[in-house]
Here is the input.
Amino acid sequence: MVRGVPWFSLRDVGDGLGLSEFGLDQVNAAGFPAYAKMVVAEEADPAIPGDPEDQIVLSPVGVWHLTTFLSDPGRGQHLANWAKKEAALLCPSPAPGDPAVFLRLLEVNGRKELPPYPWKYSGRRSEWHTLRDSDDWLYAQIANRGLTLKPRRVLNGRPGVPEIAATA
Here is the structure.
């Protein structure tokens, strides 16, 4: 648990999905969000010889993102849904907008983009639709197109609707 949110071992998730070492390496791909994974130091156990190894752990959102990199993304949706439900059980009141628990816009080549559309059984579709309908996504689209919002002047004591203007 980190800040009250459960994180899952990449090796255990990989075993659950039947992934090879190559498949597990997808967490190092350029499109995998950095906030969805973490490297943790394993504690030394005197009963086990040798030095402890660093482990990669995934947040509940990280488990879902890993499934989007599979050649058949539908294959891992039940596991992603399980990770989301476990997080809800163990952390019933996460911080609003916590990227370890909730989907958020991705940073791709300096542009903000929506994450891939979730499959039916992932448990993330309503979250994706909420993100798509959010002001954050609206403002990201405006910024991605090189536009800005400029306020309209006040008419009869009431502010007007902002208008979109091209930046010069």
Summary: The chain has a mean pLDDT of 80. The radius of gyration is 20 Å. The first helix runs from residue 10 to 17.
